[in-house]
């Protein structure tokens, strides 16, 4: 297939593009800069110049493709209404170009749209009170195209997509532990998070494009319930420092970011059993704790980048964080 991809140069995107190319697909990727275009070319993809705000460019990319994968998400998290507007406008531009064609359209959301405090499954409706409720309108917009002749589906990625070069939530924990000399968790640390290795996520995206039925909600989760305490303990072991239980207020100071503290206080386990059975997909790469033991999370460069991302700037670029 000829596949048009947005978010192909974000954290997860390059692995997804490489997976698609290796499977024999021709990939065209949205590129807003010369650096992004060069990165796509190095992966064997064809750059398509434009941005999420350039809706005509998105439409042209989708019209020329046999399928679309939308991973980019742009805007400022301090303005959820703007995030929703941008995401839905981009999804509409892509979806309208595919209407009536039967072609696949896979959009990305996050498992944090589910209800906290219990193991959520794919058939559960998203929770309007969830911490990631701003992703729900995009989900609904994409799935609406299943009624308009598009093989539309949504992949909800785990909040931790781990692997080499990770600059998401886990490096922020490592950076805070290194800075303070203590690896912390909130309360008793029994709250649970799902996680997935980046390579397993890439294969899931490919399978979704190739065969997910219209209207499918898929969970990109390799591990359903990793406790935050176990993560803190592994970080402590690697840095040879103690662990500590903090209150939410103390965790905000420890992490230097109230957004992060709130996220790490959540209990949000998620199952992917239905997704695995539907697509014949089995996560097979390293677990999160294995990656913490053998990966690159404790290099100085990883901590520096985490500090830059989470402590010193607003999230106002296009990316594929879930």
Explain the layout of strands and helices.
Blueprint: E1 2-6, H1 13-22, E2 26-31, H2 34-42, E3 46-49, H3 55-63, E4 67-70, H4 80-98, E5 104-110, H5 136-144, E6 151-157, E7 160-162, H6 169-180, E8 183-186, E9 192-197, H7 198-211, E10 216-220, E11 223-227, H8 228-239, E12 243-246, H9 248-255, H10 258-264, H11 273-279, H12 288-294, H13 300-311
Parallel strand pairs: 1-2, 1-4, 2-3, 4-5, 5-6, 6-10, 7-9, 8-12
Antiparallel strand pairs: 9-11
Helix pairs in contact: 1-7, 3-4, 4-5, 6-8, 6-13, 8-12, 9-10
Overview of the structural elements:
By secondary structure, the protein is an alpha/beta fold. The chain has 2 domains: 2-160 and 198-221, Rossmann fold; 163-195 and 224-269 and 285-311, UDP-galactose 4-epimerase, domain 1. The chain contains 13 helices and 12 strands. It has helices at 13-22, 34-42, 55-63, 80-98, 136-144, 169-180, 198-211, 228-239, 248-255, 258-264, 273-279, 288-294, 300-311, and strands spanning 2-6, 26-31, 46-49, 67-70, 104-110, 151-157, 160-162, 183-186, 192-197, 216-220, 223-227, 243-246. Strands 3-2-1-4-5-6-10 form a 7-stranded parallel beta sheet, with helices on both faces. A 3-stranded mixed beta sheet has the order 7-9-11. Helix 4 (80-98) links the parallel strand 4 (67-70) and strand 5 (104-110). The protein is globular and about 55 Å long. Mean pLDDT is 92; it is low at 313-322.
């Amino acid at each position: 297939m000829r596949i048009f991809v947005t978010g192909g140069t974000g954290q997860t995107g390059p692995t997804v593009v490489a997976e698609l190319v290796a499977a024999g697909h021709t990939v065209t990727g949205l590129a807003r800069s010369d650096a992004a275009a060069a990165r796509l070319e190095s992966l064997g993809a064809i750059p398509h110049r434009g941005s999420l705000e350039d809706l005509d460019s998105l439409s042209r990319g989708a019209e020329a493709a046999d399928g679309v994968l939308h991973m980019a998400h742009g805007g400022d998290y301090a303005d959820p209404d703007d995030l929703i507007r941008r995401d839905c406008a981009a999804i509409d531009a892509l979806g309208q170009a595919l209407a009536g064609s039967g072609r696949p359209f896979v959009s990305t959301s996050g498992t944090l749209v589910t209800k906290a405090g219990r193991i959520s499954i794919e058939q559960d409706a998203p929770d309007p009170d969830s911490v990631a409720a701003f992703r729900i309108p995009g989900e609904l917009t994409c799935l609406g195209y299943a009624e308009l002749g598009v093989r539309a589906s949504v992949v909800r990625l785990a909040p931790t997509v781990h692997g080499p070069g990770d600059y998401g939530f886990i490096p922020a924990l490592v950076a805070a532990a290194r800075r303070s000399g203590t690896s912390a968790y909130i309360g008793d640390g029994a709250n649970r998070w799902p996680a997935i290795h980046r390579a397993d996520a890439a294969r899931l995206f490919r399978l979704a494009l190739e065969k997910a039925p219209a209207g499918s909600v898929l969970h990109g989760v390799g591990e359903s319930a990793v406790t935050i305490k176990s993560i803190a303990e592994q970080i402590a072991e690697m840095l040879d420092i103690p662990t500590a239980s903090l209150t939410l207020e103390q965790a905000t100071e420890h992490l230097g970011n109230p957004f992060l503290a709130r996220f790490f206080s959540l209990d949000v386990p998620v199952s992917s059993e239905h997704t695995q059975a539907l697509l014949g997909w089995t996560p097979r790469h390293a677990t999160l704790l294995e990656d913490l033991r053998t990966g690159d999370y404790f290099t100085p460069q990883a901590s520096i980048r985490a500090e830059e991302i989470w402590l010193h700037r607003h999230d106002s670029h296009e990316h594929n964080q879930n």
